[in-house]
Specification:
Strand content: 5-15%
Largest sheet: 6 strands, mixed
Helix content: 25-40%
Number of helices: 20
Mean pLDDT: 94
Distance between the termini: 46 Å
Number of strands: 17
Low-confidence stretches: 1-37
Radius of gyration: 25 Å
Shape: globular
Length: 641
């Protein structure tokens, strides 16, 4: 069913004169709602909050020039306009974004709000005062912001099998994001990950469409009740990504990594049931407001002569299937310079993608070229005006639903809640529920506070490794200085009286009752994390294998924790362990791992993906004809308190 939109009479709004006045004080903290709503019939219809959204959109669209319309379809990276913010006005930009690691200085909640408001003032200085939409990658918390609550990545949330918890996690994320300025998040990823060699595996909830659809309560956590809640200061516009099939690409088909941005080689039935299904649910059940098409391509195996076609150019899937058949009435946002990977010159790339159905274009450093190129294509008749109007209508409707015309500047009422104890408590609970107990011989777990515990492994005391990619910077970084939080080691020390730590297991183990070895990965994101790129592999590192051998060979009871974004190969090491726990990438609250280790919470997590015996066994997924994983999809032991 399509959404029925109506006006929201209770929303406050600014008149055109007031908008300009407030624009002069952007970034000062002056409340943007400090005027009396004006519903006078003399005002332009688009500025009247008492009118239905559809009428306001139609009125505003009728007043816009081609240049103003194309401006709304353009999104630039903040770094490209920061030195000359007047570009926002001159280009009449509809949107800005912060890419991974693109932050204000200092990187504080207040500085974020001031930065977004300052950009907004330049958008409001345009002829029609159309407010700016600001997007950010809040993929596991407001993760670009130092001090924000950093949650487990989606693969860990998938292990919880708890849709209500996922909704709560994303509501916290929405609250912290909107309070600091951005009104739009490029999350959640609803791909179905079918190959653990993919560098984005941890961004997926799991390997089955059923699990992914179950976890799409994340959309409700971000948006609330669709268009009716978007204007609230604790909600943001969600983006499901990456439409469609990016978790199902074939290894070796990528031109930039090994699997990311590769080719989904599939028949229609498989594509419909596995790759497309989560987007149907996102649109029809959760009313998602925006969708980001993938970098990947699709090649049909049941259509003779089919060749790989990039999703950014796929009119059949973007328009015929998504917009018309499924009924998506939000807007499509391209991924980072995604159209640059299409064949032909830049004009051909722009024309092809617009005509395929793309509505807004993430052109981080080429916004002026994009606008000039699209203008020329429209004037030449190669892009119909109806397609431009459709795209802009979708974008404007979302801005009205977000309440940006009434309240263009940041509502800071929740600013003090960023990284609060209450929010971190939600993250700690999510960490505990995400832990998957894969082996527990002789009741090794739960641990007792009175036991003498020997902890080894770099990942036991490294927040950066614990959080993974997309944390403060795009690729993330190792170490404990980038953001506040609690490491797994600190959580263990809060729980036990006698703890010895040795990163390389070189300290004497004499007298220890239990050894805890923390193994795992270092941070990566996207194609740079693909197996085969920059030395990445599913195998444990030599240092991790050595630590397991040393500690498990010397201490009677040995527990191994794996801090990683995907399963690692532990087939040969498993026999040495008394207990084995998959901890995923828990984020800022490592104490949640200690909560289950010491029995304050039960182990309840279940594998959201199949665990391979060897790297060569990938891809392996439940339902395969010859299914023989080390641990099957859905596996997970429990413990009693």
């Amino acid at each position: 069913m399509r959404r029925i939109r109506s006006g929201t009479p209770t929303r406050r709004r600014l008149t055109g004169t007031a908008l300009l006045a407030v624009a002069l004080v952007a970034g000062t903290g002056v409340p943007a709602h400090a005027t009396t709503p004006d519903r006078s019939p003399e005002r332009p219809a688009y500025l009247r909050a008492d009118l239905p959204v559809q009428r306001r959109v139609a009125d505003l669209l009728s007043r816009m020039t081609l240049a103003e319309k194309i401006g709304q379809m353009t999104q630039a990276e903040r770094g490209s306009v920061d030195a000359d913010r007047g570009q926002i006005t001159r280009l009449q930009l509809g949107s800005l974004l912060s890419g991974g690691g693109s932050t204000p200085t200092p990187n504080t909640p207040e500085a974020w709000a001031d930065m977004v408001d300052a950009y907004q003032s330049y958008a409001l200085a345009t002829r029609l005062h159309i407010p700016l939409l600001y997007g950010v990658d809040s993929v596991h918390g407001h993760n670009n912001l130092v001090g924000a609550t950093v949650f487990p990545h989606n693969i860990g949330l998938g292990a919880t099998r708890d849709p209500a918890l996922v909704r709560e996690v994303e509501h916290v994320t929405a609250t912290e994001t909107r309070a600091t300025g951005p009104q739009w998040v490029f999350a959640p990823c609803v791909c179905v990950t079918r190959d653990m060699r993919w560098g984005r595996s941890y961004e997926s909830f799991g390997e089955t469409p059923q699990l992914v659809e179950q976890m799409e309560t994340a959309i409700d956590g971000f948006q609330g009740n669709g268009g009716r809640d978007l204007a609230r200061p604790d909600r943001v516009l969600a983006t499901v990504k990456h439409y469609a099939g990016d978790g199902d690409t074939r290894f070796g088909t990528s031109t930039i990594g090994t699997i990311d941005r590769g080719v989904t080689m599939t028949d229609w039935a498989h594509f419909r049931d596995v790759d497309l299904a989560p987007y149907v649910t996102a649109v029809r059940r959760h009313d998602v407001g925006s969708i980001m098409p993938s970098f990947s391509s699709v090649q049909w195996t049941d259509r003779p002569g089919s060749a790989p076609l990039k999703m950014s150019a796929h009119k059949e899937l973007l328009t015929d299937v998504l917009k018309q058949k499924i009924g998506f009435d939000g807007f499509l946002i391209s991924d980072w310079e995604a159209i640059h990977e299409l064949p032909g010159d830049y004009a051909t790339q722009v024309r092809t993608s617009v005509n395929a159905g793309m509505d807004m274009f993430m052109e981080p450093y080429s916004a002026p070229d994009f606008e000039a190129t699209l203008t020329a294509e429209v004037v030449a008749g190669r892009v119909p005006m109806s397609r431009i109007d459709d795209a802009v209508r979708r974008i404007l409707r979302t801005k009205f639903e977000l309440g940006l015309f009434e309240r263009p500047y940041t509502d800071r009422r929740h600013l003090a809640e960023v990284g609060s104890a209450a929010h971190r408590a939600v993250a700690r609970r999510a960490v505990a529920q995400s832990q998957v107990l894969l082996k527990n011989t002789g009741g090794a777990l739960p641990l007792k506070p009175t036991q003498r515990i020997y902890v080894a492994g770099v990942n036991a005391d490294d927040l950066g490794n614990q959080a993974g990619g997309w944390t403060v910077s795009w690729q993330g970084q190792s170490g404990n200085t980038a953001f506040p939080g609690t490491t797994i080691l600190q959580g263990i020390r809060q729980s036990a009286r006698q703890v010895t730590y040795s990163a390389d297991a070189s300290a004497p183990t004499t007298g220890a009752d239990v050894g805890v070895v923390v193994v795992g990965e270092t941070p990566y994101a996207e194609f740079l994390g693909d197996v085969g790129v920059e030395g990445h592999t599913l195998n444990l590192s030599a240092a991790d294998r050595a630590n397991i051998e040393k500690v498990c060979g010397a201490i009677r009871t040995c527990v191994v924790l794996d801090v990683a974004g995907r399963p690692q190969i532990v087939t040969d090491e498993l026999v040495r362990m008394d207990a084995f726990v998959m901890s995923w990438l828990p984020g800022s609250e490592g104490a949640g791992v200690a909560d289950v280790l010491f029995g304050r919470r039960q182990f309840t997590g279940k594998l959201p993906v199949s665990w391979p015996r060897s790297e060569a066994q990938e891809p392996i997924n439940v339902g395969d004809r010859h299914y023989d994983p080390l641990f099957p999809y859905g596996y997970g032991l429990t413990t009693r308190r």
